[in-house]
Amino acid sequence: QVQVVESGGDLVQPGGSLRLSCAASGSIFRIYAMGWYRQAPGKQRELVATISRGGITNYADSVKGRFTISRDNAKNTVYLQMNSLKPEDTAVYYCNSEYYSGTAYSYSWGQGTQVTVSS
Q1: E-only strand ranges, 1-119
Q2: Which residues of 3-40 are buried (b: 16+ CB within 10 A; e: fewer)?
Q3: Cβ–Cβ contacts within 10 Å for residue 77, how many?
Q4: pLDDT tens for each residue of 9-54
């Protein structure tokens, strides 16, 4: 069993910044890709950014140049630095972690953290 916990969501004004964190813990032999997704009210969950174990990143076009994903493999943690936030970034942000437990490959989702961009 692997637990994924996000933190860092908050209310921020347009143009502001936030840093989200996500830590994976439990029966982990190795963490592979980690990523951030978001879901706004009435919309489907969408990819924000992903990062491989080796540091290869992928971003949604809507956040390129404003968001930066990074990770600390020693801590099984992934971060999302969000700058120049816009009202349309308002959503619940979810973390996903792909892992190998030692017996099986699987993935886990966190419970989400709310990001609200509003004046």
Answers
A1: 2-7, 11-12, 18-26, 30-39, 46-51, 57-59, 67-72, 77-82, 91-100, 105-109, 113-117
A2: ebebebbeebeeeeebebbbbbeeebeebebbbbbbee
A3: 19
A4: 999 999 999 999 999 999 888 999 999 999 999 999 999 999 999 9
